[in-house]
Structures are given as structure tokens and as C-alpha cells.
């Protein structure tokens, strides 16, 4: 049996995700927000604390992704493209500023599988962002001052987030957009009776991104709403105010992970 | 009751498509093909003949569209973005070279409704094309010689078309990509018994595109397959050979239509 | 060219809907409601008035449908099954009690096409209802007193309706569930400039149902909410109170239509 | 943080699957098949061998499921209903006849998550089966001799399986339909560099079903095709001939799992 994730199979072609490295390119619409600090703190796993310098600060990101592994997977866009909505919250691990991801949604099963392996707690959702076309005209914003980009996310037929970014100027230091490493909780339960609360995998991990790149980054104003929905807790973050808005392209490769603490019993 | 298409409603906000003008911006992956001329001819409506200079020639296009009317609809991308796969065949109307569209698929109901009004015989489908990200890296082709773009279309869970374009050079005369006006058959049946074969609308029409624009157009080699599927006749076109491949951005506005012949009884 | 709806094609297999008759079988969860009469009246087309005996009364129905024409289409369930959410309002045509359908949503393009031909103003939506399984157990309600059935509808990622029905007893006279004929507005616009407000088809029609059947009909209590959503006007109906809840199976055949008034210019 | 699967959250409402027990009710269309024994054997994990008494025999099942945990989840059908296509192959574990599931597809993220925890290697797919309505008419088969039920499965826009069952008679001993326990491989990879081939979870497990029930079971003839598709290996099973066809309802509860061998390093 060959493969990396399920399903393992004779030829190793059926698995949702092949052995890394996994390469990504994407376009992001992002809005900075300030949640109720207590609500943000309530989402943190053991080992993380709120960042005292920016308690409650977070970023909501909508990304149109394209993925490839070693086989020009981007030529099969029905499988390799997907849309993602995620929230990160400023936190500290052992004094280091990190970004904690409590909620994330994608529209593709392979992305969900890779996410779980990385510790991203992915569910399925429907995610959209306004796109810019270089050909211009009334159907597209320009990537220029005044350009406006909308974004929405829904899950199980319920709208959970809406955002709007209005560009003002290029970002001076684009690399700063990815300066906080993401910390996730890899978690996979046991099903044997009596062990439902003793997960088989439960470890705090830090993402390792190779060759990160940011391009055409613009900053401006942002608007953002998290909407209450049955079976979701995103709106519990209780956004108090909204900060800057961003739009940029990004790329990186995933081939590794750093375990911070293994809580598995 | 207000509105342009159904549903008409008190505030005129619920209709699938508002009164034109309708603005479009899109990115296209296209492959020229040569069908069996007899098969191509069999799809033509009364009033069109095959183009004797290019009998059987057609173009398969996959487009990632964004739409807007007068209200910045592109800020609600869950409604205003859609993906389209269509086929056109070289034809003649009254001596004029035109493009006839026998089959077209979209993934959005508003696009389907606008299409029917224009005479495009739209069905629902799932359509994808490789995307180029300016940030580079292994997950994206470059818009440059050697860049490769895949595209696929499916309907009702069946794959109906697969294409691959490899860029070679910029197109010298991009406007030529849109030089054949599209001719459609607006058709809307009657349901009253005894009138099932007497449609309420049945007219040959020529599309009118305002402010057409083409940008960043590249040409290269193409690969294309039409696959047999239950309830579809696309593969009956029986592609004999494939011509050039293209990738480009396009934009235009729709606010009018020219009736060539009204066959309504 | 053969076929009934678009696309017309050489073999007549590609059209969204073939020539009627069209046969239907379905399972419905329905809730009676009382809207603000002025809001209900505002949705009525020319030729209909509110029913003075039940001004504002309506029914919200969620139906899991299966369709067939002459070719055992139900053996291709990926195309022939669909889910529908619709609202009807009590109205009068020329003194006759009728049901007017202002809003309706389906998850299938063939159903949308047939609907437009009938005058149902269908848009795409995502619709679900609780199902009863005869095998029993904690994952299914019983079709019996106390059995509870939920239902939801969403469009463009936004929840627009939620319902709950609790069964109390079998319906004494099931045929009464379909005693008001449905009146629709067949409407198909023109696109030629200057004629955007002069539709090519605009006629008030009454549905004709052959061989209507209702089975296993139960009545009980109902709960219902219409939720505001961008691009929708359903919630404008402003439900004042909710009446009975129903669950039943139904079947009929569509092969005809009666034009009440043709308003086409 | 509360919850069973990801995402863990403050209130424990956001997780894809809550702590078991999980209750299921479903309707199945199933076809027995005989694969190339070598191809079937190639899918087996360490610890299983082909059943020498029925080498290559398998069952393809299409199920319309409804799920509930402790909270009447079946009243939220947008989340609790899903459709599934799976294949099982006759195998032996330690001399015991078991059913091994190499491939399985669902259309719901919660079902995918529960499946992974059970060891079912679920991917997303689009699955449909003909439904029987007690109201009768031309749009529904009867659950009676001669009744015909179609079923299809697709993934990533590619059709992978098609089946047809024609009923002949009730099943004498319905419990026999579930007499082989399902054996799965729970598998969850590591991402740390150098450990990509050392999964964090890799254990052969046997499903434990509480309160299994089968109802209204019919047997008859079956037809079945597995179709080749990019990124899938189902068709490699190379069906040599098809056996009986079945249609039945089933229900059970999952609250436990038996580990046969833990291969985790």
C-alpha cells in the first residue's frame, strides 16, 4: 500500500495528499480585527497565552489558493484549486509571538486532509473574494488606490463572515505580513470506548514555511463582520473594532513541522 | 412588481439579473479545434451555414468570469463570479462570418439566466482552469513562454472536456480573438398542450458587445478532448485535430442584441 | 435541431427538459404561515388580488423531488432528483381561490428550466428536510404522532428559511392539501436596446396537474422563520404568525398549462 | 477547549463530530461483484488476506444516510444528511471473515471526519440513488418485484461508478447483509521532516456496530461499472462479473472500535 494520507492504495495515486513537499500560491484579502480579549483567550490551547502586546488582535484571511506537489498538480485545477477562509489570533508561545488558528474553512477535500495533518482544524465552507483583472472595465477593481475587494464565507448554508477592503497604498515591508509563525494543534481522536477523551494525536505544533514570498501587497481600510451560525463559534470572538485591510499574493512550500509540546497520553 | 428576469418582486432586488447593461471581465483558456464538418453542421440552426473557409473549425473556451451591473456587484463575489465552458463553431450568416454556440455550461444561476436571455443555451457545469499568480513558485505557471494551463469541464458528475495550453508568444493582434460576432438562438417553449413544438420565443440573434477589450493575450499549442457523457452531445462533434491554444483576459459590456430572424410562429 | 428547452441539438438528448409530459413524485414538509397582508399583496402580479378570506395566508414547502419523463429518467438520479423550497400565497383570480408563488428555489438546472417554462420564478438554492426511515432508531423520526421534521433553505451561502414540523395526526382529507391551483407569471425578457421593459413573454398562467396524488399525509404544529438575505426579498413577507405543519408524499404529471391573461406587448 | 474532533472550541459546538455515540439510519442500493482477485489483494493492508472462499468478491454500496448524536441532529438536515458510496472486499483477519473497505466517498465534512476516526478512508464525492415514494406514479419505482433503482458516484467531476438493481423478492435473512464485520486502517501521518513515512496513527481496527437493524430488504439482479478516473484507483479492481443486487434500509450506532493490531511505530 502506498500513499501519505488515506486512502492508501496499490499505486499511491488515490490518496488525498501525497508525501510533501506541498507548494502553494494564493491571493489573499485580509482584514485585521480586535476581538474581545477574553473571547480570544478562550480559544487558546494549553501552551499558548494571549499576546500581551496585542491582546485580542487577529486577522481574517480569505485566500484563493492553487496547490502543487511534485507532479504539476496545478494542471488539474478541479483538484488543485481551492478557496479558504481562516482566522488567526495573536498569541505567545514561550514568549515568542505566534498566530493561533482557531477556525478555518476550505472547499476541497485534499486541502482539508493536508490541513488536518498540519493541525489546521479545517471544515468545509464556501469562500469567495473579488478578483482583479488586468483588462480593466466596470466589472473589476483596479489594484490601485481606491480599489475595493469584497469577501464572504459560508458553511452549511449559513453566512459566517463578510469583509471589504479598500486599497490605499502598497505595503512598505510585505514580508511583515507573514512574520508570526502559525501555531496549530494537531488532534486526532481515539474511538475505542473509554478513550474518547484520550486523543491518539494531540500536540502543539509550529508551522514551517519554506520559500515564503509575498507580492503586490497593498494596505488600506477594512470592514469585517462575523455572523452567528448554528454549529459555529466564530462570532463568539465578538469583534470590537476593525483595523487595516490588505490584499496580496503569497506563496510558500510546506515540507516540515516543529512539535512544540506533545500532549498525547 | 419590479425586475428584469424572474423573480419579479416588490423591490426589484430578488431578480436573477437586473436590467442591462451587464459588465464582464474574465480570464480565458481557449483551444482551437477542427470537428467533423458534418457533425458541426448538424448543430446549426436554420439561417446559419458552415463557414466554407473553415468548415468544422471551432473554439473551446474556459473562462473565469466576474460580473457587475450598475451596483458594484463585484463586491459580492459569491454571486458575481462564475466559471464557464463554451464551444463555438465557425459559421456564416448571410455571408458574414460568425461564431455559433451550440453548448455552454456555467456554475451560477444568474449567469444561466442572463445567458438564456442572450440566447446562450446554458446548463450547469463545474469548470476549472489553471491560474497564474504573479508571486511565482512551483504552484503556478508563469505567463511566459513555456507556461502551461490546464482546464476541465464537468456536468452532472461527468467529465465532458479537458484541455491543456502551453504558451509560446504574445498574440500580435489580440482584437482578432473576438472578431467573429456570436450568433445565438433565443428559445423559450410553450407548455400549453398542442403547442409544445411552437416555442413562444425562437429567434436567431447576434450578440452586441460594447467596449470589448483583450489583455495579456498569449498563443501557443493546445490539447483538447471532448468526452462522451449521458445527456450530452458535445463529444458528437468528433474532434479531428486541434489547433492553437490561447490564454488571455477579456472584458465587455452587454446592453443590446440584434435580431437576425424571428422564427416565432 | 431537436429538443424542447435549450440546448437544441442534433439528437435531442442534450436539452435540459424534454417535451412533456413530466412526472413527479416527492416528499413535502410544509408550514402554513400568515404574512403581513400588505407585504403579501405587494408580490402579486397584475390580475391577482389577495384572497379576502385569508389575506396574508401562505404555505412554505420543502420538497425532495424525483422526476421522470418518458424514459425512466429516475434511474439517473444525479439528474432527476432535486430539492425545492417554495412559498405560495393565497390569492384570487377572477374570484377563484388560487395559490401565487412569488419565490422558489431548486438545486438542479433541469428543474430550473422546467420551472421557468411553467412560470415558476426559480433560482438556485440548497434545500434540506429531515427524512424518515422505516428501520427506526435514534437517527430518524417516526411517521407518527410526535415525529419531528426540520427543514432549511439557503441561497448564495445565506440561510433564508428554517422550519420545524411536529406530527400530531393523519390528515382527514389529503386531497385538500392541493386544492388551490397554482398561478404563475411566465416571463422572459427582451434584450434589444429600448425593449428591456417589454418582455417577450409575460403571461399569467394557471398550472394544470394531471393525476395528482397525496399519500401518508400528517398534520401537526409548525414553526417557521424567513431570514433576511442580500439579494432576496422573502423575509419582507414579514410572517406574523405560523399555522399548521404538514408532512406528506405527493405525485402528479405536468403536460399542459392554461393561459389566464397574456400581457405580452 | 471542548470537542471531540477538530475544531476544539470554547463551547464544544464547532467540532465536526461530537463525542460518540453516533446514530445512523440509511437506505442502501448495493451490488455484489467479483473483482480480479490479484487486484483485490493488492488493496489489502498488512494483517488481512483475501478470503479464500470468495477471493475477489466485494460489495458496492450507495447509501443515503441520516445521522444523529445526542441532540436530535437529524432536525438540522443540511448537516446531518449525507450520501455515501463505498466498496468492501471479502477478506480474512486471523481466520475470521471480514469486509475491507479500500475506497469510500461522502458529500459531507462531518461524515468525512467521523469516517477518518473510524478508519474509513473517506474522500468527497457526489453520490445518488433512485428513491422510492409510497405515493406511486411514473416517477418512482415500487419496492416490489420489478422495481428498478439506479445509483451513481462521482468525484472531482469524474464519474467513478454506476449501478442498477432490479428487485425480485424480499431477502429471507436480512441480518446476513451485515454479517461480515468491517475492518479499517486508521491512519494519520506525521509531517515533521524525516517522519513522512512514519504515521502517527496506523492501526488495523474492527468496527463495532451497536443495535444493527435491517429493514425492507429486497434482493434481485445487479449491474455495476467502475470507471477509470484520474487520481482514483477504484477501476483497477477490474470487475470480472456482477452478482446480486440489493436494496434495504439499515440503522446502527457507533460508540466503540476494536484495535486488531497497532502498527504505529
Q: Tags for this entry?
A:
7% helix, ADC_dom_sf (chains A, B, C, D), mainly beta, homotetramer, 52% strand, lyase activity (chains A, B, C, D), Acetoacetate decarboxylase (chains A, B, C, D), 7-stranded mixed beta barrel, Acetoacetate decarboxylase-like, 265 residues
Summarize the structure.
The first copy, chain A, has 265 residues and is mainly β. The first copy, chain A, contains 3 helices and 12 strands; from the N terminus they run βαββαββαβββββββ.
Description:
4 copies of one chain form a homotetramer. The first copy, chain A, has 265 residues and is mainly beta. Chain A has one domain: Acetoacetate decarboxylase-like. The first copy, chain A, is 7% helix and 52% strand. Chain A contains 3 helices and 12 strands. The first copy, chain A, has a 7-stranded mixed beta barrel. The longest helix of chain A is centred in the middle third of the chain and has 10 residues. Chain A starts with 21 loop residues before the first strand and ends with a strand. The mean pLDDT of chain A is 97. Chains in contact: A-B, A-C, A-D, B-C, B-D, C-D. Chains A, B, C, D: Pfam families: ADC (PF06314). Chains A, B, C, D: It comes from Nonomuraea maritima. Chains A, B, C, D: InterPro entries: Acetoacetate_decarboxylase (IPR010451), ADC_dom_sf (IPR023375). Chains A, B, C, D: This is Acetoacetate decarboxylase.
Amino acid at each position: 500500500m502506498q500513499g501519505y494520507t488515506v486512502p492508501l492504495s496499490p499505486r499511491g495515486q488515490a490518496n488525498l495528499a501525497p508525501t510533501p513537499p506541498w507548494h502553494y500560491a494564493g491571493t489573499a484579502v485580509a482584514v485585521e480585527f480586535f476581538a474581545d480579549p477574553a473571547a480570544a483567550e478562550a480559544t487558546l490551547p494549553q501552551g499558548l497565552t494571549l499576546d500581551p502586546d496585542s491582546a485580542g488582535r487577529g486577522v481574517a484571511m480569505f485566500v484563493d489558493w492553487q496547490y502543487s506537489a511534485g507532479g504539476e498538480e496545478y494542471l488539474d485545477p478541479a483538484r488543485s484549486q481551492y478557496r479558504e477562509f481562516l482566522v488567526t489570533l495573536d498569541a505567545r508561545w514561550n514568549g515568542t509571538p505566534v498566530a493561533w488558528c482557531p477556525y478555518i474553512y476550505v472547499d476541497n477535500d485534499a486541502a482539508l486532509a493536508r490541513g488536518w495533518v498540519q493541525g489546521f482544524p479545517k471544515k468545509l465552507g464556501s469562500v469567495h473574494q473579488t478578483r482583479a483583472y488586468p483588462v480593466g472595465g466596470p466589472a473589476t477593481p483596479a489594484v490601485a488606490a481606491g480599489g475595493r475587494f469584497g469577501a464572504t464565507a459560508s458553511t452549511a448554508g449559513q453566512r459566517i463572515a463578510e469583509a471589504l477592503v479598500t486599497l490605499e497604498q502598497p505595503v512598505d515591508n510585505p514580508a511583515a505580513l507573514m512574520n508570526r509563525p502559525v501555531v496549530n494543534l494537531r488532534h486526532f481522536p481515539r474511538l475505542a470506548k473509554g478513550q474518547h477523551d484520550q486523543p491518539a494525536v494531540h500536540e502543539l505544533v509550529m508551522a514551517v514555511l519554506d520559500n515564503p514570498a509575498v507580492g503586490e501587497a497593498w494596505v488600506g481600510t477594512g470592514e469585517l463582520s462575523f455572523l452567528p451560525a448554528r454549529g459555529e463559534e466564530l462570532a463568539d470572538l465578538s469583534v470590537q473594532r476593525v483595523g487595516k485591510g490588505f490584499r496580496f499574493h503569497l506563496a510558500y512550500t510546506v515540507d516540515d513541522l516543529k512539535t512544540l509540546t506533545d500532549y498525547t497520553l
